[in-house]
Amino acid sequence: MIFSKIPDFRMRDMEVATRYIAFQLFGSSYIGNMKQFLDDATLFCTKHWKDMSPVLEETWHRFEMAVDATVQIFGTTL
Hints:
single chain; about 80 residues; mainly alpha; 3 helices
């Protein structure tokens, strides 16, 4: 629902997904610098891909369920 068929040249859609995943997995370490927080989260996941892959897949699944629930509750304006 948040990812349109036309890619967002600013990648705002991917930033929303990245923020969700980062806060789900590392939210307790957020100290107010969003850019650094997202950079650190993605770097950690990249460096530890073998261990993080199943966790990321499950977190992505929860993200999709959250988006679906939001659309069911509020509808869509597409």
